Amino acid sequence: MPFISQIQRQTDYNLFPSSTPIVIDNGASYFRIGWAGETDPRVIFRNIVQRPRHKTTGETVTIVGDHDTTLLKYFDCTRSGPRSAFDSNVVYQFEIMEYILDFAFDRLGANGSEIDHPVLITECVCNPVHSRSKMAELLFETYGVPSVAFGVDAAFSYKYNQQYGICNKDGLAICPGFSTTHVIPFVEGEPVYRGSCRTNIGGYHITDYLKQLLSLKHPQHMTKLTWEKVEDLKMEHCYIAPDYFSEAQLFQKRTKEAEHKTRCWQLPWVPPPTEEPPSEEEIARKAAIKERQGQRLREMAEAKRSSRINELENQIHGLEFLLQQLEQVEENDIAAFLSDTGYVSRQEIESTLVKLTQSLRKAKGERKVEQAELEKTDASMNEKYPLIHIPDNMLSLEQLKEKRRQIFLKTTTEGRQRAKQKRVEEELEQEKKNQEEEERRLENPELYVEQMRAKYKELSEKIDQRKRLKTNGNHTNGNNTSGGVGRGERLNAAQRERMRLLTTAAFDRGKGEDTFGAKDEDWQLYKLMSRDNDDDDEEMDENEAELARISARLQEVDPTFVPKQESGPTQSAAEIPRVRPLTKEDFQIVLGVERFRCPEILFRPNWVGIDQVGLDEMTGVSIRRLPTKDEDLEQRLTSSIFMTGGCCLFPGMSERLEAGIRMIRPCGAPIKVVRALDPVLDAWRGASIYAAKLQFPQQTFSRMDYYEKGEDWLRRYQLQYTL
């Protein structure tokens, strides 16, 4: 509606004399107020109140009706949601109703505390006397209204459309509203309230049902599915299916007709920037930068190595000079001489000198010298252990003990030397391989990278396959998963054999006397049960080490290489989450079966937990409640079935209602379903025409009548719609 300033509203308000009634359509969804005799209401707004706090000052403000969502950033609405004065379709929160009336009269232009105009206000069918008396008390005592009249909105809409020949004097008015649905029979133009019926289903339940279905279907967009937006989607896209199950089968079979009926709401979405693959110049530039960085690191390492070598040489020269000085010092003066140097004896100096010499040779990379030292050590081994090659019968008891000690020391020393020699050989072999790989890379870099990538892929697939086999219990058909097998099925062959040996040993031990270990063959079980003999695990460790080496090498020579993400020890390759980029389709709300499934609850309220009849059955209930049983009257009623209310705007409503009523009426009975000219505003327009008639003051009751006659008179009050 266009914006009208407060001065203009007050000017328009003063133009109407005090005898002009104010017409109010107090609906559960929208509140409409205007002047009698006009075609449209002056003010229309949502019949809700919200009282949020200001985020800065903490002051509580009152917001009535529709509000600008941009203003809510200044208020905290988390503790105060929208509240309505209605319980179902009956007003019971008159404190909220007072806020709404204050706002309505202010927007109408009233500038005083009293309203000196008669008021015609709508109410629901068979409104409780308590609610009617509270509304009269509010209008009389708070606003000083001179007189009040109450009428049913559906009856005003029926009488308004009767003037245009839409419906007859005898008929049924079906009003599916916001929270309830009423059916009112009309005989000779007057409503027969004894035959009316109500079902607690309406537009509110349809919106709430649609919101639930869309939230379950698109849980990632629940914040976008606000009540106002779902209400708009309902009014724009929902329709009544002629046959629900046939319509549902179309969507179940995914026919072209179902695709044509599917609607899509596109949410705001900004496509991510496309990452173009790097050009050859960019790859060459990154490779050059990486090469320069590697050269710089090599230079730094060489400088550090040279500094280390110089430091070690200086320390060795110092120790050698110290040993030369010790030769000139007498034996008694050695302790005093070494007190200032930090050493205790000549042996400590010689040991430190040997360690520094080895560190210097290692820093210089003198492998051949280490091998020569190993050979020299082997040659001097016999001189160090003289008793080893002497027969036992030629030795005394003390010499035999010493011989055994020398054998143990020699064996330990030889083992250490062999391990050291093996490490030296492996380092030489690895260094040789690295040199060969570097030569192949320099000869043909592209071929080298391609071969390394192929080897990396092969090892990755091999490791993943072994992990899957280990998880699935060596079943390659894919039918066994980690969650469907026992622990024994998940073990490989070596592990199952180990478990069998352990079980057998434990079982045999309980049979009788424990003789395990009496035979040498028993100790072979330890070797069989040892985890070190698990060749599969050793091979897997070697493959993983080789894969890590190739990955590190590819990262050095190929800037575009991205290593594969490793899964956890308990996570199989099939369980690795794959995150794909969000697309336009991920920001779409698709409405398929929801378009006709949600309005279907008007005919099947039990779908949402309301154990009551639907719209089509309500007509039969209303006809059966009539005080007189007249077949001619029933035929006249069914030949003029009038629909009004917001839910009548769904496409296909008239056809579906007519088909449902035909199922419960006798064969050949005349059935005609019509819809109001404007199901939303016809109730207010009918009330406006009624209040503009000269006989309207006779249908009102004044403030003096209310004070004198009280609540009992309101109980018997009933508006006469035919004037």
Automatic annotation (TrEMBL):
SMART domains, alphabetized: ACTIN
UniProt region (Disordered), positions on chain: 411-443, 466-488
GO cellular component terms, A-Z: nucleus
GO biological process: actin filament-based process
Biased composition (Low complexity): 471-480
Keywords: Coiled coil, Nucleus
rRNA-binding among keywords: no
Family from the record: Belongs to the actin family.
Protein name, as recorded: Actin-related protein 5
